[in-house]
């Protein structure tokens, strides 16, 4: 699949989209969120919630091993980057401020790194 320049910037150059602008941020449909680059299933709509962060947020990946992590020290801070485990595409970051009644995690994901498959 050929990526648009914006998708390439996010998926390959570890960029981000401005908060609140992503096409999937307000998506409430039932289905699966997959990697835009390789199609691997990453997140279910069952784990999506409104974090108020400006990006689609999930409290867990669809299955263990669907995403991989790495320490990100860019922009003068330390964060945990999340990437597609299959192809290594940059997705966003994971934080420990998610819903306490679930995993307590917030997988904060760029809309442009995902494609949605409606159920």
Describe the structure.
The protein has 119 residues and is mainly beta. The chain has one domain (5-118): Metal Binding Protein, Guanine Nucleotide Exchange Factor, Chain A. It contains one helix and nine strands, in the order αβββββββββ. A six-stranded antiparallel beta sheet has the order 3-4-8-7-6-5. It has a three-stranded antiparallel beta sheet with strand order 2-1-9, with no helix packed on it. It starts with a helix and ends with a strand.
State the gist of this model.
With 119 residues, this protein is mainly beta. The protein has one helix and nine strands; from the N terminus they run αβββββββββ.
Number of helices: 1
In CATH, the homologous superfamily goes by the name Peptide methionine sulfoxide reductase
* Averaged pLDDT: 96
CATH architecture group name: Beta Complex
Number of strands: 9
Q: How are the SSEs ordered, and which strands pair?
A:
Elements: H1 5-13, E1 31-35, E2 41-44, E3 48-49, E4 57-58, E5 67-72, E6 79-84, E7 90-95, E8 106-109, E9 114-118
Antiparallel strand pairs: 1-2, 1-9, 3-4, 4-8, 5-6, 6-7, 7-8
Key terms for this structure?
8% helix, three-stranded antiparallel sheet, Metal Binding Protein, Guanine Nucleotide Exchange Factor, Chain A, single chain, six-stranded antiparallel sheet, 119 residues, 9 strands, mainly beta, globular
């Amino acid at each position: 699949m050929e990526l648009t320049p914006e998708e390439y910037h996010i998926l390959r150059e570890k960029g981000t989209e401005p908060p609140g602008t992503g096409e999937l941020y307000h998506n409430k449909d039932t289905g699966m969120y997959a990697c835009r680059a390789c199609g691997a299933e990453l997140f279910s709509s069952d784990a999506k919630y409104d974090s108020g962060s400006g990006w689609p947020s999930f409290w867990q990946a669809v299955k263990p091993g669907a995403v991989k992590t790495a320490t990100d020290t860019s922009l003068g801070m330390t964060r945990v980057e999340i990437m597609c485990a299959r192809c290594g595409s940059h997705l966003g970051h994971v934080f420990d401020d998610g819903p306490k009644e679930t995993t307590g995690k917030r997988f904060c994901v760029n809309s442009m790194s995902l494609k949605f498959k409606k159920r």
